[in-house]
Every structure is written in structure tokens, then in C-alpha cells.
Write a structure and sequence with these properties.
The structure holds two protein chains of two kinds.
Chain A lengths: L3 E2 L4 E5 L4 E7 L6 E7 L6 E7 L4 E4 L2 E6 L4 E6 L8 E8 L3 E3 L3 E6 L1
Parallel strand pairs in A: 2-11
Antiparallel strand pairs in A: 1-3, 3-8, 4-5, 4-9, 6-7, 7-8, 9-10, 9-11
Chain B lengths: L3 E4 L2 E4 L5 E7 L5 E7 L5 E8 L2 E5 L6 E7 L2 E6 L8 E8 L10 E2 L3 E5 L1
Parallel strand pairs in B: 2-11
Antiparallel strand pairs in B: 1-3, 3-8, 4-5, 4-9, 5-6, 7-8, 9-10, 9-11
The chains are: A mainly beta, B mainly beta.
Chain lengths: ~110, ~120
Amino acid sequence: DQQVKQNSPSLSVQEGRISILNCDYTNSMFDYFLWYKKYPAEGPTFLISISSIKDKNEDGRFTVFLNKSAKHLSLHIVPSQPGDSAVYFCAASTGKLIFGQGTTLQVKP
Amino acid sequence: DTAVSQTPKYLVTQMGNDKSIKCEQNLGHDTMYWYKQDSKKFLKIMFSYNNKELIINETVPNRFSPKSPDKAHLNLHINSLELGDSAVYFCASSQVSQMNTGELFFGEGSRLTVL
């Protein structure tokens, strides 16, 4: 029973456009939500997080939005760059981190 | 000067064998983890240690035995390997204060293939 799901296995966008990655969760007790980025043959690296008491957190080109009523999380990347091409994992925490299955983002030049 | 390092990176072995994966972190963190990325790509927590003490033990077969000789090392030993153990195993670390916020530092992963 997966508590964190990323229903889009892949996404392709043009360089300079917006990338929107989505994530759904089922457990209303999660208190932090995070996005990790993973390049091939590397481990995931932390990208951005948001507390459950907020609905938006921004860090440069990356913004995470949290909709608690819909139990939905999204990551916006603006503008997208070819170096953003990677697998993005959504994760949620209640003291242990539970990951989604990842979305592969390809940014085309 | 890799922050979280795992060895070996690749491991191919026969069913029934016993194997170990080692992990070391030089970040000064006090909490370490093992995650398994299965064929469906989900990253699932297996174990977590804080200052050498086991604090998270998910529903993992007891063929898997973690060992933490000190807070900078967390090794994973697997007995009687089965085909379903084939996966990528990731080690990670954090400060205990970051456990709730989920900011973990991951190693590069160890790909285990059981034939």
C-alpha cells in the first residue's frame, strides 16, 4: 500500500518552459514533504522541502506547492534547463521518509 | 572526499550465497539508513540507526542484518540470497534533528543481482 505516489513515470518539456511534477499522498499525518533529484548512477540528492503548515516554498527556479485538502504536492521548475533532466522523487515524512516511485524529467534543448 | 560512500557498487552472486554491503559517512551525522529500490523503482526504508542503536526496522526478512560498529558506519549483511533480493540498495545519513524534515544524504547505491 503505497502512501506516496507519482502517477506520471515520465515528462518531457522544452528548455525554457515550465516543468510541473506531481505527487499524491494518502496519509494526513505527514508533516514534511520533500523533493529529491537523482542522476543515473548517483544517489538521490535533496532539492526542496515544505512543511505541512505551509502551502508554498520557493528556492530559485524551484517551487513546491502543497494542497492538503487534495493531498497533492507539486514541483514547478521555471525555466527548465537541460541539466534538470533527471529522476525526481517525491517524499513525505512522519519521522521516516516514504518515497514515491519517481518521475523521469527530460528537458530538450 | 565522498560524503556517503558504499562498497561495492555492483555485486553479482548466486542464490543461497551470503553477501555484505558496507557504508561509511564522513559528514559527522549520527543517524544512518538503508533503503532498497525495487524493480518498481520505489525507494523503501529498511533500517535506521542512531548512534549505533537500531531505531527503525521495517518489515524486512531476518536474512537481512544491519550492523553499526560506530556512528560513521552502517553495514548490511544478507544471508541466503534470493532472486527477489535483486535491487539497488542505498545507504543514507542525516543528523537526528533532520530525521523529521527528511533531509537525507544518500550514497551512490549498490546494485545487487542475484542469479
